[in-house]
TrEMBL record:
Protein task: Catalyzes the NADPH-dependent reduction of glyoxylate to glycolate as well as succinic semialdehyde (SSA) to gamma-hydroxybutyrate in vitro. May function in redox homeostasis and play a role in oxidative stress tolerance by detoxifying glyoxylate and SSA generated in glycolate metabolism and GABA metabolism, respectively.
Organism, scientific name: Zea mays
One Gene Ontology term, aspect cellular component: chloroplast
Stored InterPro entries: 3-OH-isobutyrate_DH-rel_CS (IPR002204), 6-PGluconate_DH-like_C_sf (IPR008927), 6PGD_dom2 (IPR013328), 6PGDH_NADP-bd (IPR006115), HIBADH-like_NADP-bd (IPR029154), HIBADH-related_NP60_sf (IPR051265), NAD(P)-bd_dom_sf (IPR036291)
Domain 3-hydroxyisobutyrate dehydrogenase-like NAD-binding, chain residue ranges per copy: 264-367
The protein, known as: Glyoxylate/succinic semialdehyde reductase 2, chloroplastic
GO molecular function, one term: glyoxylate reductase (NADPH) activity
Length: 378
């Protein structure tokens, strides 16, 4: 089957029933803002509806462009960074500077923090001269760093002990989306603070999700990164497979795309199961991934059916496993190791043994479910 025909067969018509209760897109936010602008509310110089001063802690690869976009949108921004020279470009744009996180938090109504790791995030929030020392009732602290759930809860407890509000809001996206204001915010915590800073999130991102209790944002970000990491690993193997070996045209035009998509399906299935296991809505994971750096029609079109455990055949699982077998034979013929594909093949074989041969290839998630159940019963 030609690659183009595979993609057409494997992907059903777009679902029109996917829930969007937990996500607000930039377009929706713009419409809401236009409606609200006719009523009460202060607007910054760039048309951003937010009442108060904004602090920003951490001006690295991500923090600097995020803070820059807030300034360009007309927000009154005060910044801090361990290395003061990194503040200079933002000061030239009109930002103010304070020498400690505590002083930034004290002088601002809402403070954002984008730090490199959990230890830095906790230190800047809770350490000596940390942001918590400058917080008080009525103020808000939004941590957009990527940390584990335990660290996020620790920071949240310290922040709320001051009477201030806390929101975790890790982002999906890298430097370029940060520069372009196209990040995805995965927020959890104080819902009133979420609503309060929504206009600021819309300046820095293209969509935002509210996920409930503190820890859920961190969990969602880690699940998304897990799927993304597996996806990039698959691509690295296949790039080497394609360009380092003298392979015939069949492998380039058919087998490699098929292998890529079936391996992505396994990674995606793992993400759906993990999200449900940690108490997240897998439908929300589908939406987040569909909007992010690894977005593909397969995720948004197959995901909703997979959540419902429905696998109407568009591309039968038995054919997908056959293609994996052929790809492994091709790799063997040139002594090329493709362990990720080999692992995926074993899962598809397991799915066939469960009687799923004639179901859609997305039914491979059932093999993963069976594996998890078997492990938990031991």
């Amino acid at each position: 089957m030609p690659a183009a025909a595979f993609f057409s067969a494997a992907l059903p018509p777009p679902s029109r029933t996917l829930s969007r209760r937990l996500v607000v897109s930039r377009a929706a936010a713009a419409a809401a803002s236009a409606s609200a602008s006719s009523s009460s509310g202060w607007q910054g110089g760039g048309g951003v509806e937010f009442q108060g001063k904004v602090g920003f802690l951490g001006l690295g690869i991500m923090g600097a462009p995020m803070a820059s976009n807030l300034i360009k949108a007309g927000c009154d921004v005060t910044v801090w960074n361990r290395t003061k020279s990194k503040c200079d470009p933002l000061l030239s744009l009109g930002a103010k500077y304070e020498p400690t996180p505590a002083q930034v938090a004290s002088s601002c109504d809402v403070t954002f923090a984008m730090l490199a790791d959990p230890q830095s995030a906790a230190e800047v929030a809770c350490g000596s001269s940390g942001a918590a020392e400058g917080l008080a009732p009525g103020k808000g602290y939004v941590d957009v760093s990527t940390v584990d759930g335990a660290t996020s809860k620790l920071i949240g407890e310290r922040i709320t002990s001051t009477g201030a509000s806390f929101l975790e809001a890790p982002v999906s996206g890298s430097k370029k989306p940060a520069e372009d204001g196209l990040l995805i915010f995965l927020t959890a915590g104080d819902e009133s603070l979420y609503k309060r800073v929504a206009p600021l999130l819309d300046v820095m991102g293209k969509s935002r999700f509210y996920l409930g209790d503190v820890g859920n944002g961190a969990a969602m970000k880690l699940v998304v990164n897990m799927v993304m990491g597996r996806w990039h690993k698959i691509i690295r193997y296949l790039v080497h497979f394609k360009f380092e070996q003298n392979l015939w045209m069949l492998s380039l035009n058919v087998l490699v795309p098929l292998v890529k998509y079936c391996s992505m399906m396994v990674s995606f299935s793992e993400g759906l199961l993990l999200s449900e296991k940690v108490g997240l809505d897998p439908n929300t994971l589908v939406e987040v991934i569909s909007q992010g750096a690894i977005s593909a029609p397969m995720f948004s079109l197959k995901g909703p059916s997979m959540v419902k455990a429905a696998y109407p055949p568009a591309f039968p699982l038995k054919h997908q496993q056959k293609d994996l077998r052929l790809a492994l034979a091709l790799a063997e013929s040139v002594s090329q190791s493709i362990p990720t594909v080999a692992a995926a093949n074993e899962l598809y074989k397991a799915a066939k043994s469960l009687g799923l041969s004639d179901h859609d290839f997305s039914a491979v998630i059932e093999a993963l479910k069976a594996k998890v159940q078997s492990q938990s019963s031991q």
